[in-house]
Amino acid sequence: DGGITQSPKYLFRKEGQNVTLSCEQNLNHDAMYWYRQDPGQGLRLIYYSQIVNDFQKGDIAEGYSVSREKKESFPLTVTSAQKNPTAFYLCASSVPGQISNQPQHFGDGTRLSIL
Amino acid sequence: AQSVTQLGSHVSVSEGALVLLRCNYSSSVPPYLFWYVQYPNQGLQLLLKYTTGATLVKGINGFEAEFKKSETSFHLTKPSAHMSDAAEYFCAVSPIYNFNKFYFGSGTKLNVKP
């Protein structure tokens, strides 16, 4: 079955530590996205990538970094500069980004907490 | 900037009653519109979408939504609620010029009472 796999499902971060969230898709989608979800705030876009080796900042990129070296993979690093990282992180992908009428497909998320 | 408003962060209905979840968007050019459902500790699942054509769209699990340009709305309905419909629902818009960048509403949690 095609889909998006996020790992781990739960992650704990110590003060001053960088952590990396994995996102892999086998849908052959060009575009990939990272969202942060906090209670009552919906989904906020962190970074997105329309094509391999290219990515753009979203609305809340500070304290986060990404890479897009392969079409299937879009890992998100939560750096120590992100002072409030506790949240539910969702990865999504979609068919070529130039086509705005295509839905985004989501993984099952990673819940990050501070130790 | 695009915005999406979902009226009511919590909605409670009885099993068998009508479900109505409201979504309004701000845009002079009608965007593409989507509804998603999220169960606890899971990702979002697409319920339905409106791109062009018929303004009443049907989705999975008996849900449907109607695009009303004059009201800039895309409300989600289901004639008869089922216990399994209890979840959080998100409305999302994708501006037609903006390369599939989505804007999400803040979500509505639906509670279904027996």
Protein model, in words:
The complex is a heterodimer of chains A (115) and B (114). Chain A is mainly β. Chain A has no helices and 11 strands. Chain A has strands at 4-7, 10-13, 19-25, 31-37, 43-51, 54-57, 64-66, 76-78, 87-94, 105-106, 110-114. In chain A, strands 2, 4, 5, 6, 9, 10 and 11 form a 7-stranded mixed β-sheet that branches. A 4-stranded antiparallel β-sheet of chain A has the order 1-3-8-7, with no helix packed on it. Chain A starts with a strand and ends with a strand. In chain A, 38% of the residues are buried. The mean pLDDT of chain A is 92. Chain B has 114 residues and is mainly beta. Chain B has no helices and 12 strands. In chain B, the strands form 3 sheets. In chain B, strands 2, 5, 6, 10, 11 and 12 form a 6-stranded mixed β-sheet that branches. Chain B has a 4-stranded antiparallel β-sheet with strand order 3-9-8-7, with no helix packed on it. Chain B has a two-stranded antiparallel ribbon with strand order 1-4. In chain B, a hairpin with a 5-residue loop joins strand 7 (56-58) and strand 8. In chain B, 35% of the residues are buried. The model of chain B has no long low-confidence stretch (mean pLDDT 92).
What is the typical, i.e. mean, pLDDT of chain B?
A: 92
Secondary structure tally, helices of chain A: 0
Proportion in helices of chain B: under 10%
State the shape of chain A.
Answer: globular
Number of strands of chain A: 11
Strand coverage percent of chain B: over 45%
DSSP summary: helix tally of chain B? 0
The general outline of chain B is globular
What topology emerges from the helices and strands here?
The complex is a heterodimer of chains A (about 120) and B (about 110).
Chain A: E1 4-7, E2 10-13, E3 19-25, E4 31-37, E5 43-51, E6 54-57, E7 64-66, E8 76-78, E9 87-94, E10 105-106, E11 110-114
Chain B: E1 3-5, E2 10-14, E3 19-21, E4 24-26, E5 32-38, E6 44-50, E7 56-58, E8 64-68, E9 73-78, E10 87-94, E11 103-104, E12 108-113
